[in-house]
């Protein structure tokens, strides 16, 4: 069965007002979107519930983070149980900004991934290398190590609710984009790794999406690669062009 194309919009810590949020949602609600593409947006946690209430039903909502515990004395955190109870189906975990700015290790990301899946959520699991690591020829080693931590704690059945986002750190918010060939090379490696570390079925069925300065102008060529199953979009998800990215596979 072909993998459904997936386009996620990571709003990060944007927008800064409810009025701006409403403008973005009104544009999405009015847009003609490809029904064959799964569309998901991840606003700041403050906006999750009010946004969910006004967003069209064919676009899903995702949290940008959650913790690995169900409840307790963890100031500032949100639990998978709270997200699931609120009807939020997805969470982004392991984003490079969480790894670098907040020092999350691959082991912690794996624990959070397992907790989210056990709590009934689906996970957008981010992996990717820095520019220094790429120039040192360590891209596949870094990505494998990040995935290995998750593979060590997940059951084979868990992977059915995981979307892997390959986001080269050097391309996030920089305007630099991995070439279609570079993206395909790493996506193919991830699929090969899943086949070995988990199973051929998981390898065939898991969606592997690309993130890193994705725009309406560069997404077309990336989308034609055999192992690129969609995008995790940053800045462009706040702009009207996000609709064009969602519709990139429409004939």
Reported for the largest beta sheet, the result is: 8 strands, parallel, barrel
Count of alpha and pi helical runs = 11
Strand order of the largest sheet: 1-2-3-4-5-6-7-8
Uncertain parts: none
| Anisotropy-based shape | globular
CA(first)-CA(last) distance: 20 Å
What is the percentage of strand-forming residues? 15-25%
Characterization of the model:
- The protein is of the alpha/beta class.
- It is 39% helix and 16% strand.
- The chain has helices spanning 18-30, 48-54, 80-85, 96-101, 106-118, 131-135, 139-151, 180-197, 200-205, 219-223, 241-246, and strands at residues 6-10, 38-42, 59-63, 90-93, 122-127, 162-166, 207-211, 230-233.
- An eight-stranded parallel beta barrel has the order 1-2-3-4-5-6-7-8, surrounded by four helices.
- Helix 1 links the parallel strand 1 (6-10) and strand 2 (38-42).
- It is globular, with a radius of gyration of 17 Å.
Element layout with pairings:
Elements: E1 6-10, H1 18-30, E2 38-42, H2 48-54, E3 59-63, H3 80-85, E4 90-93, H4 96-101, H5 106-118, E5 122-127, H6 131-135, H7 139-151, E6 162-166, H8 180-197, H9 200-205, E7 207-211, H10 219-223, E8 230-233, H11 241-246
Parallel strand pairs: 1-2, 1-8, 2-3, 3-4, 4-5, 5-6, 6-7, 7-8
């Amino acid at each position: 069965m072909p993998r459904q194309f997936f386009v996620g919009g990571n709003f990060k810590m944007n927008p800064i007002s409810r009025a701006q949020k409403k403008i973005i949602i009104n544009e999405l609600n009015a847009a003609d979107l490809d029904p064959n593409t799964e569309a998901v947006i991840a606003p700041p946690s403050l906006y999750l519930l009010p946004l969910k209430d006004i967003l069209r039903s064919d676009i899903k909502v995702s949290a940008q983070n959650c913790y690995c515990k169900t409840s307790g004395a963890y100031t500032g955190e949100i639990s998978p149980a709270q997200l699931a109870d609120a009807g939020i189906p997805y969470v982004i975990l392991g984003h490079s900004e969480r790894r670098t700015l907040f020092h999350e290790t691959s082991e912690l990301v794996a624990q959070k991934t397992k907790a989210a899946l056990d709590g009934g959520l689906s996970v957008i699991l981010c992996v990717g290398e820095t520019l220094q690591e790429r120039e040192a020829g360590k891209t596949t080693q870094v990505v494998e190590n990040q995935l290995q931590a998750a593979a060590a704690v997940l059951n084979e059945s868990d992977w059915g609710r995981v979307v892997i986002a390959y986001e080269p750190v050097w391309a996030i918010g920089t305007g630099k984009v991995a070439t279609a060939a570079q993206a395909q090379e790493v996506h193919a490696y991830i699929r090969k790794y899943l086949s070995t570390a988990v199973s051929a079925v998981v390898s065939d069925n898991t969606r592997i999406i690309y993130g890193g300065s994705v725009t309406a102008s560069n997404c077309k060529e990336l989308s034609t690669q055999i192992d690129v199953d969609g995008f995790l979009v940053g800045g462009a998800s706040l702009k009207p062009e996000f609709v064009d990215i969602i519709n990139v596979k429409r004939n």
